[in-house]
Amino acid sequence: MSSLRGRLTAFVVKLCLAVVTAKKSPEKAADMTRRSLWRMSQHDWKTAELYGEAAVRTNPGSPDAYRAAALAYAGARQFARARELLTNGARIAPDDPRFPSDLGDVEAAIERWPEAVEAYRRAVEIEPESALFRIRLASALFRNDELTESLSVIRQASERHPDDAAVHAELGHILARAGMLEQAEQVLVANLDRNPNSALTHYYLAVAYVWMRRWTEALERARRARELDGNLINVASLIRGLEATLRTGIEPVAIDQRGLS
Length: 261
What we know:
By secondary structure, the chain is mainly alpha-helical. It has two domains: 96 residues, Serine Threonine Protein Phosphatase 5, Tetratricopeptide repeat, CATH 1.25.40; 99 residues, Alpha Horseshoe (Serine Threonine Protein Phosphatase 5, Tetratricopeptide repeat), CATH 1.25.40. The radius of gyration is 22 Å and the shape is elongated. The chain starts with a helix and ends in a 13-residue tail after the last helix.
């Protein structure tokens, strides 16, 4: 019943949008873009796609319309269309770093790491002061087996952004994933000294302690990460595994250092 209702809603929205978009209008396109973004916030990807496509048709020169439509398709895991829209949007706004960054996210989602590296590299070229773009580039480089450049990028980011907790968390995490566990611990502990409420740093330190087989410390950090941010991916399962290890003596399922994001 709910599926039928969803299809009917999508049909009605599509029909209404066909009427609305019959005439080109920047104002209507902006409204469609806002509606698309709002629908995405509700995880209503199909309706968000319809509004995004309508915005593009209503104002083909609007970068925001292309981006909204692309993000809707990416949310629905329709990555080919998302890639197409981001590529077209980048032609309209070649100096907007959001397009290559979003394209990198799309490529990373389907583990096309060389393409993700290329896209993130372009985002950094456009906006070299962005800590977020450098974090994403460093992570993609690591996943693409380019450890030396990955560490170079994230270390440069840590020098440019000495007070950015996320940058130093990623530096420690990449060091840990590369097997440099003692260095990773030093970086992550120092980051917590400066930023004691960084949930991501607590989590990455917990993961490093798992790889070091320091179960009690790992559990302590994982629990603290969950207290600070209950939405962290994998933290709940990590806690359950560590609690079982301390209770039974059976080691938790190994966490892949190369693959963990």
